[in-house]
Specification:
Helix content: 10-25%
CATH architecture: Roll
Number of helices: 4
Number of strands: 6
Distance between the termini: 22 Å
Order of helices and strands: EHEHEEEHEH
Low-confidence stretches: none
Shape: globular
Strand order of the largest sheet: 2-5-4-3-1-6
CATH superfamily: ph1033 like domains
Amino acid sequence: MQYWLMKSEPDAFSIDDLQRVKIEPWDGVRNYQARNMMRDQMKKGDQIFFYHSNCDVPGIVGIMQVEKPGYLDHTAFDPEAKYYDPKSKEDNPRWYMVDVKFVKKLKRTISLAELKEQQPLEEMALVRKGNRLSIMPVEKPQWDYILSLL
DNA sequence: GCCAACGTTGGC
DNA sequence: GCCAACGTTGGC
């Protein structure tokens, strides 16, 4: 069992959206590090923090889990799609995604500001300056510590 | 292989 | 809306 954190802009797709649809293909990721984690490392049942970025109060808002491990992100082949990538070919696909499933919404947002105050979390990529990775692994002790803040 | 230019992310 | 920090692209 591994633990992860995935970012989404709530204007585009929020924890409430996930609660409504239950299962969502996490498409549109166009970053190689994130791609590699989805394609090679994420397993069904892995637990994931849902993080709201680019909003009034950025932070962790819920928990989801991997429902379907890495598979082709077909939206890269579609010229009409927002994240169309003409360099991703069907015979040599470049991008992958996973399906995620709603687990729960936290009773409050654990804000980035609060996370930055936590000494046990200072090694987390999330709180490091300039971090832009939209998917990152979370260590089990960090996962437990964050939940203990609730 | 270097690096300038450009585009994107995301906090503030 | 600004801008720092990155990642990508493409000329050389």
